[in-house]
Amino acid sequence: MNQSLILDGNIAVIRNTYERAVFHYTHSFNYIGFDNWLKEGNLESQVVLYKDCKHFIDFNDWKNELSILKLTPKDTSVMEGQVGLSDYKNWYTLRSIQLVSELYIDELKSFGFSY
User: Fold this and answer.
1) What is the pLDDT of residues 85-94, one digit of tens each?
2) Cβ proximity of 14 and 50 under 8 Å
């Protein structure tokens, strides 16, 4: 499954690290336990995925952020129908929060996510 959301080649749509991890785990069909899945390195850091992007917008407010930044990508169809997981916090455990914090420290620091 493609883990990146890029508009016009240089606008990265970043997503809360934990929400993104839960989304990709539940869509992976590799149900080995969330913590085990994280430890296997199945989720690539958004810092790596978007290293060549010039602009970053938040997944949860992408339309508004495009407008504020006055960015007009030619094609936003990749975003249509995408929804956030409202229940991702139900997956919180002390261990999973620790794993996400350790494995994706670069992403958390770069994009300011916290738990």
Assistant:
1) 889 999 999 9
2) yes
